[in-house]
Write a structure and sequence with these properties.
- By secondary structure, the chain is α/β, with parallel strands linked by helices.
- A five-stranded parallel β-sheet has the order 2-3-1-4-5, with helices on both faces.
- The relative contact order is 0.22.
Length: 195
């Protein structure tokens, strides 16, 4: 039996997790949120350590002393570490559920484009925010009514920059990129793309 792996990538606030949950429910599939892998790796290496610092991308994003280029490089370096363990994790999860939906910002397009698993069809889509303002709007509920600070504005812009980098790389690898807005019909548009 051929298994199916559906990968949903993109930056924070693009609707990856909501989309992945909806697809998993509709397909009676397993669902894996890659932030679980990231958090587990951070807990395993422990703080303070150089490995923890390498994986702590949110700290880099919030650090005004770091350049945008350094933040993107930090994000890519952390993602490469996470991508190294994903083939074994995907294979393990597919043993329990022959259809698996996985979502996460950690999915590097080069990794997705080169990923192969025995007897598995792999489909992917990367979600994209058109501008930093749409990132800010998507992440505003996390502020729970508090006004955004300069730190939040810096974070929103850097999240968008990382998302732009991801989507540029996805297009370069001929992978599907879908605008995340409007959220109301995102699931429908992604289903059409995955066909």
């Amino acid at each position: 039996m051929v298994q199916q792996l559906i990968l949903i990538g993109g930056s924070a606030g693009t609707g990856k997790t909501s989309l992945a949950r909806a697809l998993a429910r509709d397909l009676d599939a397993g669902w894996l949120q890659l932030d679980t892998i990231w958090l587990t790796m951070m807990a395993a290496v422990g703080r303070p350590s150089s490995a923890f610092s390498l994986l702590d991308v949110p700290a880099a994003i919030a650090d005004p002393a770091r350049s945008d280029e350094d933040v993107i490089a930090d994000f890519v370096a952390a993602s490469e570490i996470i991508c190294r363990v994903l083939p074994d994790i995907f294979a393990f999860e597919l043993e329990a559920r022959p259809v698996l939906v996985a979502d996460g910002a950690w999915l590097l397009p080069a990794f997705v484009a080169s990923l192969t698993l025995p007897d598995t069809d792999i489909h992917s889509v990367f979600l994209h925010h058109a501008d930093p303002a749409s990132v800010a709007a998507a992440l505003a509920p996390r502020l729970e009514g508090r006004p955004p600070t300069e730190r939040h504005r810096l974070g929103d812009r850097r999240i968008w920059l990382c998302g732009e980098w991801i989507c540029e790389q996805a297009r370069a690898h001929k992978l599907s990129v879908v605008d995340s807005l409007p959220f109301e019909d995102l699931t429908h548009r992604v289903r059409e793309t995955l066909r």
